[in-house]
Amino acid sequence: MRRTMEGEADRLDRDLEALASRKRRKVLEHFLTADTEVTTLEVLSCKLARLNVGDGGDGPPPTERARTELHHVHLPRLADRGLVEYDAESGTVRYRSDERVEVLVRTLAEWETCDDTCER
Description:
The chain is mainly alpha-helical. 62% of the residues lie in helices and 9% in strands.
């Protein structure tokens, strides 16, 4: 029993690490709200750039910056966790459903948008 509880705790830690970045949560939210299991790096890059998810300042345009971060950081991290399959050559991103992570993503999205009138 203890081994099972430790395994579940480890899984929760991995889930929370994968969801620690707002950008990764937004990628997963895209799949949950777009009713699709497949999208492209370009679509996700534009979505993150439009949402102003990222750092401002000098440097490349927001879409290019989002594309670079997705390609090098966020999509590999989600792929390592088994939440997406990312084909860097074609730019295709396929979502791999995980009910437990979906509950966390939805809960965190509600919490992020909650204003001062929400009870926590």
